[in-house]
Amino acid sequence: MLNCGDMQDHASAPALPGIQSTLLFENPEEIYTRVFRELKPRTPLPAIRVEFCRFANADSLIRLDCGTIRVRISDLLEGAPAPVMEALAYILLSKLYRRPVARIYAHRYRLYLNRRDVRRQMHLVRQARGRKFVSGPQGSHYNLETVFEGLNAAYFNGLLARPQLGWSRGASRNMLGHFDPSHNAIIISRIFDRPGVPKLAVEYVMFHEMLHLRYPVDHRGARRRVHTREFRQAEKQFAKLREAKELLKQL
Predict the structure, then answer these.
(1) CB-based contact 9:67 (threshold 8 Å)
(2) At 150, is the secondary structure helix, strand, or coil?
(3) Rounded distance, CA 95 to CA 110, Å?
(4) Using one digit for the tens of pLDDT, what is the confidence trace for 137-183?
(5) N- to C-terminal Cα distance for the chain?
(6) Distance between CA atoms of 221 and 59, rounded to whole angstroms?
(7) How far, in Å, are 119, 147, 202, 231, 244 from residue 193 at the CA level?
(8) What is the SS3 assignment for 41?
């Protein structure tokens, strides 16, 4: 998924009457045509098709198919300001032709996605459209509910409300666990639910995801901080932290 900003930097720049007024009245295909001609001035213009789709998040996709550039954009962005749509066009076309994305467009797009009203809308859409598989807490060797409640009592005074708990479909080594705020669920990789895996490893991964529940993602301007300073400080309180991390490396 591409993440990037808002009109804030655009609005602070000196007005360019011809360019700005043109941008406001362009449809999506015209925006992508203009940006293509700027990025690839010597290349014949291909047909360009842009459609808005009912994605479960703010995904945007682009591909060159039989001489036609096809762009699929989440309908969450259908009402975005023209400068934001222009920024997305630069991002997608730059990636399609393997060119560096200009910082101003990445920043503008990120700012827009980090706006509180946009994040709220994305959250609601993920809840309504997204599908979340939650297996339940009982595994073959460990019960995640038991692990959660033990950690809750030891580190959170029993005050954390228990979310949905489940094991992943497969034994992922890349994503050991994650907290999904849209579905209020903590999912732990099945790689831990097997003989020989120390309970300490399961507890540490669960503790880490519980901290995401306690310390939500911080959005400031174009920045998105998943692990805040408070999060990192709280993580250091986990008993046998170094030993737990060494166990994960062995897995």
Answers:
(1) no
(2) helix
(3) 16
(4) 999 999 999 999 999 999 999 988 899 899 988 777 788 998 888 77
(5) 28
(6) 20
(7) 34, 12, 8, 26, 16
(8) coil
